[in-house]
Amino acid sequence: PWIRWTETGEDPALQLQSCDVLVGEPALLAPLVASAPRLAWLQSTFAGCNQLLDVPRRDYTVTRLAGCFGPDMGEYCTLHILALERQYEEQRRMQSRAEWAASRASAGFTYRRLSSLTLGVLGLGDIGSEIARVAHHGLRMKVIGCRRDPAPRDTDASAGVSRVLGMDGLAELFASADYIVSVLPSTPATRGLIDGSVLSAAAASRRDGAQPPTKPPVLINVGRGDVIGESTALEALERGWLGHFVSDVFAPEPLRAESPLWAHPKATVTSHNSAVTQPEDVAAAFADNLERFERGGVEALHEGGATFDWEAGY
Predict the structure, then answer these.
(1) Which of 45, 70, 83, 258 is the S-S candidate for 88 at Cβ 3.0 to 4.6 Å?
(2) pTM, to two decimals
């Protein structure tokens, strides 16, 4: 009863007037919600829905695509941690020159065992917790986290998170971890959160407290690009506050062609593909939520734990 096939020649505006439910990418649907007066529920095909905040209307329920991106992002983070620790790029360069290292030590091919390293996860929702689980149970890394409410949760223990800091402990997170993964959404509270004051304070703490001094941490950003500004990232790399910057997200996107990050030897740029929506995940999420919607309306959608919070922005 929820699907009605229409002819391609029908006016889309007329079709929207009879819609109770929309499914799609938030950026594409945001301009359409004003034309759908009956809209009660929007199923997003993405985890992030912040484009919907650009439209004043709030009288409908949004469900995020959740529970499927964590493993993919965990693999992405694992890829870059291993590539940096095992100097994959240099290995490839030597192969291209048909060059065999006479001495592994003299060639610089020393590495740290992952079991000796600490991963900091900034944002411990379903995605952050899955990244923590992969790092701890799969790579044997120590994991600490940071979120708005640092109170212990059952999911922390199962993910292998040994300690959780509040957002006021951000500098401590950067001072304590070898790798930091940010999965934070874009909200007024998170924009520019990782700034020079945080990174310089963390660097000073490392320098003064570690014997001997440890390597600068690596930041991997798979959340939203505006958590750290491009100029801040570049300054952090030049000053040694960060040892490397891996980013899959930028503000704005695409990253401008003139950005120094493209060619920076201590930066890795990817094109927002750490986790790509898979059709089968959308179908499964929509089917589950449709069952709830038919049974109890929009109120029942909250049972799935993936409703978008208009106030929080995620």
Answers:
(1) 83
(2) 0.94
